[in-house]
Amino acid sequence: MAEEWTPLFEEEEAVEEETEVSEPEMYWVVLLNDDFTPMEFVVDILVDIFHKDRVEATKIMLTVHRTGKGKVATYPYDIAVTKVAQVHRRAREAGHPLRCTVEKA
User: Where are any strands of DSSP class E within 1-105?
Assistant: First the structure.
């Protein structure tokens, strides 16, 4: 005698939920001027960490030098904070006081 098969769970219809996806908030990485970090080191940081070409990196470095700070690039918060940490680590390893911050774009 065959037993009747019964499912363990009731079958459910697939329900598509609409979820709203939004772009992450963006933040500027801002370099701050100091009187001790060599200009060439700042250019190297901009090329190596922010992937700027040397011409654009030089323009940013000169803006920082002349005005006291300069916007480098915008990123989502986590990436911006990581870039700031990379700059601070490289500067510290080289013995320079170069600083940068994150500002909401």
Answer: 26-32, 69-76, 99-104
Tell the burial category of 46 from Cβ atoms under 10 Å away from its Cβ (0-12, 13-18, 19+).
buried
The whole-model pTM stands at 0.80
Q: Considering only CA atoms, which of 104, 97, 85, 79 is closest in space to residue 42?
A: 97
- Residue 61, helix vs strand vs coil: helix
With a CB cutoff of 8 Å and minimum separation 6, the contacts of 83 are: 29, 49, 50, 72, 73, 75, 100
> How far is 16 from 64, CA to CA, in rounded Å?
51
Structure confidence by residue, pLDDT tens digits, 14-60 = 667 788 889 999 999 999 999 999 999 999 999 999 999 999 999 99
Asked if residue 84 lies in contact with residue 29, where contact means CB atoms within 8 angstroms, the answer is yes
- Looking at residue 102, the DSSP 8-state letter turns out to be E
Q: Please give the pLDDT value at position 86.
A: 98
